[in-house]
Each structure stands twice: as C-alpha cells, then as structure tokens.
Specification:
With 171 residues, this protein is mostly helical. The chain has 6 helices and no strands. Helix content is 84%, strand content 0%.
C-alpha cells in the first residue's frame, strides 16, 4: 500500500509541471499566436486533457488510500484497546498488585529483566522475584508460558467460534 501511495505521489509530482507547461503553451498558442485551429493546438489540448484526467484520478485514489489508511489506523487502535482490556481482565483475575501489573506489562511487551529493572529503578533481582510471583499467580512456570497463557486466553473465544462454525479443532 505504501509503494502504491508513493508511486501515485511521484506521478502527481511529475504530472503537475507537465500540466502547468501545457496550460502555459496552450495560452500562448491561443492568445498570442492565435493558433486555435492548428493541429499543434489540438494535439496539445488532447494531451493536456489526458494529463489532467490522470492527475485527477491519481489525486482521488490517493485520497481514498488516505481514508482507508486512517480507517485502518483507527481500527488498529480500537483492537489494541480491546486486547489491552483483555490482558487487564486476566491480570485482575490473577489479582496482581499495581507493581506486578507494571512488571507483567513490560514482560508482555518483550522487555528483558535488566531493562525492566532499569525502567523501574530497581535491582534486576527484584524484577526477577516480582516476575516469579506473577508467574505463580498466573499458574505458569516462566516468561514463555506467561505470555502464551495471555495469548491463549485472548484467542480462546476466536478459536472456540472457529471450531463452532467450521467444526475445526485449531487448539
């Protein structure tokens, strides 16, 4: 999509000076040289018309692409919010403290323990201990299982629906 948008912008940037030159030339031909009936004037007029049509079509397509992109960005924000709500609900169910939630979110986002410790201005051993408590409350043995549990819980309704509709077992 990005490539299509860039190529359309490139075409517009190239077509604009061509269209401006054709307008200038047509004005000179018509009002200075009085060549309304010449083949030269007719060819330039048709050429200008084609350039203008392509310019307008590309401009409309760019606007439509921008509109679709804006729609998708909004949709992605909504989906990200729903995912965050689902993860928060899981953390509520595990009865994580505020501090544990912060650490849990950083784990889910993929931060290493050393990075989490630096961000929170604590020792790495403190972060590891908090992670162990989080894993225990979530009923898992480590980071990978913790993240997998979160993803599994988020996907379960989708997988259940897929199974119900299509009779597939994707679990």
């Amino acid at each position: 999509m990005k490539h299509a948008r860039l190529s359309r912008w490139f075409r517009l940037i190239v077509l604009l000076p061509i269209a401006l030159f054709l307008i200038y030339d047509l004005v000179i031909d018509a009002f200075v040289l009085h060549q309304f009936a010449s083949a030269h004037f007719a060819i330039e007029s048709v050429t200008f018309l084609f350039v203008l049509i392509i310019f307008v079509i590309d401009l409309r397509e760019l606007r439509e692409l921008r509109s679709r992109l804006d729609h998708e960005e909004t949709r992605n924000k909504v989906l990200a919010g729903e995912i965050a709500e689902g993860i928060d609900a899981q953390m509520d169910g595990w009865k994580l403290t505020r501090t544990e939630r912060e650490v849990a979110w950083l784990i889910v986002k993929g931060y290493r323990f050393s990075e989490i410790a630096d961000l929170r201005h604590v020792k790495e051993s403190t972060t590891r201990l908090q992670a162990s408590t989080i894993y225990s409350k979530a009923g898992v043995r480590g980071r990978a299982e913790f993240v997998a549990e979160i993803v599994q819980q988020l996907l379960t309704p989708i997988l259940d629906e897929d199974y119900r509709l299509h009779g597939r077992n994707n679990v």
